[in-house]
Structures are given as C-alpha cells and as structure tokens.
Amino acid sequence: MKRLHIHMGVENLEKSIRFYTAFFGAEPIKTKENYAKWMLDDPSVNFAISTRVSKKGVDHLGIQVDSAQELATIREQMSAANILTHSDGETICCYAKSEKSWVNDPNGIAWEAYHTMDDAQIYSDEIQEKQSACCVPETKGLPDCCEPSEKTVGCCS
User: Fold this and answer.
1) Nearest alpha carbon to residue 26 among 13, 36, 12, 11
2) Which is it for strands 44-50 and 57-65: parallel, antiparallel or unpaired?
3) Are 104 and 73 in contact, with CB atoms under 8 Å apart?
4) Mean pLDDT of the chain
5) In this structure, are residues 74 and 65 in contact, taking their beta carbons and an 8 Å threshold?
6) In terms of DSSP bridges, do strands 44-50 and 3-9 run parallel, antiparallel, or are they unpaired?
7) How many CA atoms lie within 13 A of 102 on its CB side?
8) CB–CB of 101/114 below 8 Å?
9) What is the pLDDT of residues 7-58, one digit of tens each?
10) Residue 121 DSSP code
11) How are strands ordered across the β-sheet holding 30-32?
12) Quick one: pLDDT at residue 149?
C-alpha cells in the first residue's frame, strides 16, 4: 500500500501536536523533542511535523511504500520518464531507518519515495548542527537541478 507523506515545519511543537491531534481525531504514533508523526488510515497519510526545518509550512512531500519492490517500481518509473533522482540509499531520517529517493517537481518542491524498514532512536545519521529537515537534498528549490555531491557545492555548481 502506498501512503502520502507530508512533512511540515512548525514553530511550536506542543501547540501543533494539540492542533493536529484534534484535527485528525488521533494521537501521534511517535513524538520526540523536535518531531511528531501520525500514520492515518483514512485518509492514508503519513503526516509529520518538526521544529528542525528552516521554514514553516510544507517542507516536502512523499510516497511511503511497504516494500523494497514497490520502491524499485517507483524508481523505474522515474528512470523511464528521465526524471532526475537522488538516492540516499539506506539512511536514518526522522527517527526511522529507510531507503529513499528524491526528486524535485517542476516547481522545485521536493518529493521523496521511501521504504521504512525499522524505527531509530536518533533523528538522522548525518551530523547536522543547523536547523533543517534531516533528509531533503539541498537543491535550492530548482527543478531538474543536480544534487550536491563531493564534486559540487550546492546546486549545479
């Protein structure tokens, strides 16, 4: 089963948890000092909020799948459509161990496709001193932009 994922940056986690718990009529399934997540069946959505993002509101969107095969199918669709992707491989992000791929839509909105294998006790396996979502590749919101790598600094430079 595929599930829509929405990650939003919030200013006040406790206030936002109260709001979304009332709005969804369900308690979050995971809460940490800087993060909360709801896994709703109706609608089928993985909704997460955190105080780690630099902007408030929608940080990124995604499709969560239940198996490595479903993730491979999405990756094949992107490849067949010549959509530039960035794969994180196996990573720890948002207190979960997952396999991920990222794309930017034509408006620069980051989308991830991922399969979560296990829970994690840390937010990210990357050392990050600055406030940011753990996983969104820095492409400066430019669609079709390359991802930063050892050979590039920032987007396409």
Assistant:
1) 36
2) unpaired
3) no
4) 84
5) yes
6) parallel
7) 25
8) yes
9) 999 999 999 999 999 999 999 999 999 999 999 999 999 999 999 888 899 9
10) S
11) 30-32, 35-41, 44-50, 3-9, 57-65, 110-119, 96-104, 86-93
12) 45
